[in-house]
Amino acid sequence: MTTSRLALFGDLLDFTADPGFAPPAEMRGVRWRPGHWLLIEQGRIAGVQAEAPDAGWQRIDHRGRLVMPGFIDTHVHGPQLDVIASHGLALLDWLNTYTFPAEQRHADPAVAAAGAALFLDALLAHGSTAAVVFPTVHKVSAEALFAAAGERGMRLVAGKVLMDRHAPDGLRDDVVQAERDCLELIARWHGRQRLAYAVTVRFAASSTPAQLAMAGRLCRDDPTLYMHTHVAENLDEVRWIGELFPEARSYLDVYHRHGLLHERAVLAHGIWLDAADRALLADTGAQIAHAPSSNLFLGSGLFDWQAAVACGHKVSIASDVGGGTSLSMLRTLADAYKVQALRGVRLGAWKALHAATRGAAEALGLAAEIGHFDVGATADLCVWDWAVGPVARHRDALALGRADGTALHERVFAWMTLGDERNLVETRVAGVERWSDPQRPPEGRR
Ligand code: GUN
Ligand code: ZN
């Protein structure tokens, strides 16, 4: 429902700064306001207070529930809902066997429109209110995605995928037509509502040097555009890029040489980077969208998050469906913890949740709008149950009963690790309810 003055009661959690890999007990950057009212006026955060607001506010009581900013998924493929959970192959074979054939179907405007609606409703039903998205090479698939995100009032960054080689028929464009399509899409969608255009290079292997140069020109001519691609995900892929671009120092350098690395560049994966690559990311301001679920599922490798932090480049979190196996950022963060554990690093819930909210917003240059509950931010948020099912409820009760300084982190970490979309009660975009659990009663939803 739409209302101009709305107050939500619950346990409010957001972040004021990056908690880093500091011991969780330090609570660095954590803003925890249990049992508070979140005031929303005209779709924006108007304040937070302990006392109940007056009758001029529509009040919704989510007592005992967690309220957080909506998650920001910084790399996900809408049309790949068609191939999520496809068995048995590593990246390059997975692309050829499952992904490319599925993407071919999205040339059909009806398939593209239905796919975009299904995908965005699923994002909202998993607790993500903003995303950086790959549609397909087809202009209609980008059109469908932007139109559907606009209808839902969502913050979305996307662009037609560029790929003019090493892909099957029906899934290749050419430089001239691709540039024309990009310019038309930019004119129509970039900066409209909450939508932004990303020059979307699938990966260096599927664009000719001429197409990469065209993509670089688009970025140079309009510095407000994003750039979105994959980099250094899989060792066979890295070797192939070395053969295709022998003049480049590294895979990442291919993008640099074509003017594609900048503050608004989002590069998925970045597992197989070296120190010079990391320094280049830091210099250019480009970010890595870390996709742990996908990296585990496709067997791509273990991302070195601490090296990224040490070099000072930005890292956000991504589901990378359909390489990733869930749109849930909670499941994705649980996988991020496991990836770091295999590297001997213990990722805390604060660092993880910051990366999926405020950290992502900052990396995207959108921190004035999303990722936190600062006054003036757009009220994109989710209400969560702390625990669903007997095991999680038991674990939550034990964490809640503890009185020492780590109790809150323990509780939030258990929620992050055991929770998923079944914990979600409702999702609001700019204050408007865009998803709510039909299984939970509407009044107070409990
Ligand atoms: N590299 C090029 N295309 C893709 C894709 O669709 N998914 C993943 N995970 N990596 C890619
Ligand atoms: Zn991807």
First-to-last CA distance: 18 Å
Instruction: Predict the CATH topology of the largest domain.
Output: TIM Barrel
The general outline is: globular
CATH C-level label of the largest domain:
Alpha Beta
Tally of structural domains = 2
How large, in whole angstroms, is the Cα Rg? 21 Å
The CATH architecture of the largest domain is Alpha-Beta Barrel
The overall pLDDT, averaged over residues, is 96
Poorly predicted ranges? none
How many separate helices?
15
Describe this structure in words.
- α2 packs across α3, α3 packs parallel to α4 (175-189) and α4 (175-189) runs parallel beside α5 (209-221).
- β6, α3 and β7 form a beta-alpha-beta unit.
- The protein is globular.
- It has helices at 91-104, 109-125, 139-151, 175-189, 209-221, 235-244, 251-257, 275-284, 292-297, 305-311, 329-342, 349-355, 358-363, 390-401, 407-418, and strands at residues 5-15, 30-41, 44-49, 58-69, 71-77, 128-134, 155-158, 161-162, 195-201, 226-231, 265-269, 287-290, 314-317, 381-384, 424-429, 432-436.
- The protein is 37% helix and 23% strand.
- The protein has 446 residues and is of the alpha/beta class.
- The strands form two sheets. Strands 5, 6, 7, 8, 9, 10, 11, 12 and 13 form a nine-stranded parallel β-sheet that branches. A seven-stranded mixed β-sheet has the order 3-2-1-4-14-15-16.
- The protein has two domains: 5-69 and 371-445, Urease, subunit C, domain 1; 71-327, Metal-dependent hydrolases (TIM Barrel), CATH 3.20.20.
- It binds guanine and zinc ion.
